[in-house]
Amino acid sequence: MDGTTQELAQRWLAEDKDPKTRAQIEALVVSGDEARLKALLRAPIEFGTAGLRARMEAGYSRFNQLTVISASQGLAAYVEREVADAHERGVVVGHDHRHGSAVFARLTARAFLDRGFRVHLFPALGPTPAVPFAVKRLRAACGVMITASHNPKDDNGYKVYWENGAQIKSPVDEGIAASIAEHRVPRNWDVSGVESDPRTADVTAPMLDAYFEAARHLARDAELNRATELRYVYTPMHGVGAAFAARMLATLGLPPFVPVPEQVDPNPDFPTVAFPNPEERGALDMAKALADARGIGLVVANDPDADRFAAAEKQADGAWLTFTGDQLGAVFAAAVLDMARRDGVPDAKLAMVNSTVSSRMLATMAAKEGFFYADTLTGFKWMANELAALQARGYYVGLGYEEAIGYMVHDQVLDKDGITALGVFVQLAAALRAEGRLVGDYLEDLYAKYGYFVSANSYFVCPDPAKTARIFSRIRFGAADADGDAKDAVERTAFARPHMGDVLRYPRTIGGSPVSYIRDLTVGFEMRDVDQSPAACDLAEGQCWPRFAVSGSSHMITFETRNGARLTMRTSGTEPKLKYYLEVSNPSNDRAAAARDLDRMVQAVADELVQAAVNGL
């Protein structure tokens, strides 16, 4: 075993007071398993915009009591320095039902108490949305939720909210990471006095009461809600959602759900699902089977920490329609628009936001109806901070959503909230059933009004980072011959950037359709109507620089074409995948034409851009 690995192992054993994780490292030291020790110790777990998330086991690279204490010490020191009156305003701490979550939450609280903070604690398990709600309601300095959302059972996470109630983003995450490095050595493992400390307050009852009370304005027709005979099956996927979903439905005056018995109670082992994510293929099968057996035509679901929402509905032909994330986004947008108008919110003061890889249908709706619309980078942290800024400017923030079944319809929760999303969806379904219609019919009405939108999101597995880099280089620069000169059979438009010392050469067409828009967040380029530009042009410094953050550490390019297609290609930060998000719209609701265009564009991604066959993908 080399010296560095041995030193790290001994340092870990000197610092770690958790017998379980100490034993793991001790066993590896005795067996001399250097490769395993390196994997666990050498690359410290990274604190990013999603906080921390990793497998629960020993080591600086994993999620465990030591890394949680270090993160909490660093976070507390950073918040103390950056947020006014931080000690008095305090920190909100909550946790889900995963193995170890309750202890991790109390270790977090202990680090803040030791730093002189008040702690607003949810001592029992709860849903993720309760924490950002409490941060906003209590004007806390920050919030921490211990959860790994829908990750496998062996993972856990540390999700951080800033004083505005939104998830942290750059440069706050970098500042926290630096502070963690400065306060890395764990100081206090004692959680015995956390709840009895006079600076700790159990905020469960007052915050949940306020959360549900604040959601009452989402009731669209209380009398109709009470009268409905709608029946529906619900699953929380072995997570925390059932009790909170039931209370939300009661708050809105809706009838109770029919639970999936095997999945309704919190169970950190997730015994009936391989991957506890309702977005995964087959995840709703047990709920659908129960619905079929009971003669019920609607299924709704939350993920384990209840921040995501999914739904499926049996159509007139007897087939189940499992709504995509974008289809639900359109349904929520229309429902929110109706509720806002009912409540007297002017269209021009209503704001809705989605991520740049989500459907453009929301932008089309905004253009037609007159409400404010913006898209953001992928990840709810970007949407939440955009929504917080819009609230500060006097907008009513009605909806934020991402295609990965995350929805914010409660203006006091600046994060995904599957509990209020469920309530809004169920009452819409109840109102439609009273008219003899389905949510699927409602979606068809939206297509007829705003045009048809169909998507194909997928990925190519590419474990070779160098090959991935070559693929993206060819897309943005063209292929190069032996002399390094651009030489490519693909017709391209050249954009010389003398100040950057490069010439970008993007394809003029994709799938036979002219490229009209390009945004490249890796090299910093954005331009509309590129097909109307000369075949080659020089760009001055700052010209065509994108409004989104540019990062050279990852690849992300978006194209739009004149046939109504929008394509975003990016690398994954956690998996060896080259992902793409493709959507085709047809303003006249011509499904067949949209399907043909989509098929052609999917083929073009594989053949023209990625060259999957040539690259062995």
UniProtKB/TrEMBL annotation:
Keywords noted in UniProt: Carbohydrate metabolism, Cytoplasm, Glucose metabolism, Isomerase, Magnesium, Metal-binding, Phosphoprotein
Main subcellular location: cytoplasm
One term of GO molecular function: phosphopentomutase activity
Top-level taxon of the source organism: Eukaryota
GO BP field: glucose metabolic process; purine ribonucleoside salvage
Database matches in CDD domains: PGM2 (cd05799)
Alphabetized PROSITE patterns for the sequence: PGM_PMM
All residue ranges annotated as the Alpha-D-phosphohexomutase alpha/beta/alpha domain in the record: 46-182, 210-314, 325-450
The keyword Cytoplasm is annotated on this UniProt entry: yes
Keyword Phosphoprotein on entry: yes
Family, per entry: Belongs to the phosphohexose mutase family.
Identification of the protein by name: Phosphoglucomutase
Organism: Coemansia javaensis
